[in-house]
Amino acid sequence: METLKKIYPKNSLKIIKTGSPRVDLWKSFFFDYWIDPKGMPTKPFLLVSSNMGCIAMKSFEDNFKSVRDAGYLQRDTGLFKNLFYSTAEDYKKLYEFIDAIKYLAKNNNGYDVVLRPHPEENIKVWEILLEGVPNTHVIRQDSITAWVKNAFAIMHNGCTTAIEAEVSGKPLLTYSPFHMEHAQKLFNTLGYDIRSKEELLIKANDLFNSEKISNQKKIDTKISETISKKLYIDSSELAAKKILKVWESFDDKNLKKPNNLMKFYLLLKIIKLIGVGRNILGALFPNKFKSLKENYKFPPFDENDIRARVSRLQHLFGVEKKLECKFLSDRTLLIKETSK
Question: Architecture of domain 20-228 in CATH?
Answer without folding.
Answer: 3-Layer(aba) Sandwich (3.40)
